[in-house]
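note to self — DONT lose this again. spent like an hour looking for the file last time. sequence + predicted structure for the chain T wanted, 105 res
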Amino acid sequence: MGPEAARLLDELFVFPSSGEVEHFFAQGGFSDADVKTPRIIAAFNSVDEFTRALAVGSIMRRTQTQFSEETLGSLVAEVAVEMASYVSADGLHFPMEAQMLTASK
């Protein structure tokens, strides 16, 4: 996997600041836009499921590319090493922040 694919994965978890999001929606006529950023626990059955969901659901569909099973397997192995501390018998669970927007016109 090259730098471009890695950048696409990173983009999934990078959002503008809450203020930027609120400003963007205010420009669209939502004057009371409010962004909260709660910390949640993301849960997947396995590292394999998580990695394939991101690779297939994001990179492959956005770029119209295909990864070989060998490449996907290598990616899963790398992610498993990096996420090992979040893996248990119940699957993969890790903390992340999510932006929640409420607004009305």
